[in-house]
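Our consortium's second objective concerns turning raw sequence data into structural hypotheses that experimental partners can test. To show how far this objective has progressed, the report includes one record in full. It was chosen at random from the queue rather than selected for favorable results. The single chain below, 523 residues long, was entered without modification.
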Amino acid sequence: MAMVAAGSGRKGCRGVSLFWLARPRPRSAPPSWGPRRSLRAPPAARAIGDSECRTVVCAPEIDDWVFGLCARMRCRRIGMELLKQAVLRETFPSWSGQESFSFVKVNYVISRLRINAVDLPETSASFIPDTGISLSVANASATISADWRMNTWLLSKDQGDITVSISGLFIAVIFNVSRDSTGRLSMLLHNCQMSINSIKVKLNGESSWIYSFLSGYLEKLIHTKLDKNLCLNIKYKIQMMDAHLKKHKVLNQIDAFAQIDYSLVSSPAVFKSHMNLDLKGTVYPVGNHTDPPFAPAPFALPNQGDSMLYLGVSSYFLKSASLAYYRAGAFNITISKELATTFNLNTALFKGLVPTIALSYLPACLVLLNLVATSPPAISLNADRCILQITGCVDVFAVLPNSTTQYIFTGNLTASTRANLTITKQKLIISLLLKRLQFSLLRSTLGFSDQMSLVENFLSYALRSAVIPVINDKLGKGFPLPNLADTTLTGPVIKMNQGHLVISTDVHYKHEEGGDEDLHRRP
């Protein structure tokens, strides 16, 4: 699998492709903070990478790119809102010092610093080829409040509160993105620059002639501290994000049978208009990470841009899942006495089909089935349909009145099923529907070799009513899609194509504080 922050000109994709798309906006326009927006891809057709999967974050106009994995893959508007929320929650240590004003020495303490308001009117993000990602904020402003105390030999002690107004703040940050030794995304600060146009300090308290002198001194002091510490603080925050990414699970448990590996197979490749992140995206049986014996075939996604997120899934992904479940024995099904009772499977069903069997068991006896898959189910993706063909061997038994079982017959069967695909709770759910069954008799205790089509009718009923529901129950936990923290997919639509399928969707984001944000298209 590969994850790509991209514009146009991608290669053919092989497995799973995730696209975050952005609509270009004139560079002079301010950011939109409304509840709805549209995100579109560039007009060129999108085709992606050389490995199993590929995720794409499009940036036709870089000012409006969608933050990639390092920013939890949220829209820039959401990313900036998160930045504002993080800044407002920021805490600062107290500091103290001594300063001489003419003949007066003042000892002061500044404590309980807190940011009350932040305005980020001009923000931008861009890709730096072969380096990483550039983020910048211009003409930002902030209001900070704090408590102050001072002590002088002349004025004794005094205290009050302080208001600091910062305007014309500019910050430009470049950070590298790479793959660490565990296959996770890693971030490192590459460069940081900042400047401040103006800092104004107002001390409130019982007025004193020294306040104006102290205010001017604090303005210079705060300016110096910001110059010295702001980029260091950003570096620390990026280190914290990197540490968080190192805890990100790359091996996701699907169910008791299978796991999916979303680790990076190489470091991100950064270009001017896009960034490629190649993820493995292979499904394995639990405890057995042997790679599939087949290679992924490339595919291209058509030009689309009405939704903000596109996930392309090729037949390779589904074939690796089929192989994993086969190796884990998920397609070996035994219809027990309890299930046979539930689905009313008994020898009386043969009365109008194969009378020889029905007459051999009077009164009617429950029928048990033991189905063993003899090869991994074959999967084919075509326009508007996904076909899964299960090949196996079935043994049929009767439960006698004394609760012992008696063998009836064995045969080979090929069940052609149609796979219905849905998205629930950010998981791809697959459910099977039997379309056709072929059966050939291997051996039997009764003579009915000339009645194979009638036996097929019984087995079709047994598979539809008992076997397929058991398989669907095993598949019911679904395949987790690449994790988008604090987001859910809104109105996903699945379109099947030759060799791959495409999931188009918008995204619903939930703030940590409980506020919700719908990232839908504008009308």
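The partners drew two points from this record. The longest strand covers residues 156-179. The first helix runs from residue 76 to 88. Both points have been shared with the crystallography group to help prioritize constructs.
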